[in-house]
């Protein structure tokens, strides 16, 4: 009896039509550049084509393609690894010290935001502003934040994938959160009264 291996539900010729847009959006949300996202999706399809015979059918075709794309994104950021001083964003963090006194208390507490964060998260406009803010911080810092906070990678996995020490990870995440807070406070929450 000849048993055939499970295969993707469609043939490779239809992968682009069936999964291309979803993969592109996934990549673009992580790398922030159209040309890089397009290239990563192309590399994903090529890798999938080479490995199609190995697809066991344990997951849906799109899930399998996304897992390949995730590896391509991680490889991309590994290839763009910067030195540790750039990773920590030390060049422009002097404003952080102006926020707190010597005891670590706010000098001027942040303003109360005009809306509940849950409501803001539901709007597409917020995510556009959030992406713009994320794109303004150093790329390695943004990648670290995306993997840990948006993609829910464990701290151990982020450290392993980006070759960071645990203490370095927490410093990078802290700085990313502070920069995002500042950018969102200026570009979203203070402008909330406009609606």
TrEMBL record:
One of its GO terms (molecular function) is sigma factor activity. SUPFAM superfamilies: Sigma2 domain of RNA polymerase sigma factors, Sigma3 and sigma4 domains of RNA polymerase sigma factors. It holds the Pfam family Sigma70_r2. Residues 16-82 form the RNA polymerase sigma-70 region domain. Keywords: DNA-binding, Sigma factor, Transcription, Transcription regulation. InterPro entries: RNA_pol_sigma-24-rel (IPR014289), RNA_pol_sigma-70-like (IPR039425), RNA_pol_sigma-70_dom (IPR014284), RNA_pol_sigma70_ECF_CS (IPR000838), RNA_pol_sigma70_r2 (IPR007627), RNA_pol_sigma70_r4_t2 (IPR013249), RNA_pol_sigma_r2 (IPR013325), RNA_pol_sigma_r3/r4-like (IPR013324). Signal peptide: none annotated. Residues 130-180 form the RNA polymerase sigma factor 70 region 4 type domain. The keyword RNA-binding does not apply. GO terms for biological process: DNA-templated transcription initiation. Belongs to the sigma-70 factor family. ECF subfamily. This is RNA polymerase sigma factor. The gene is sigX.
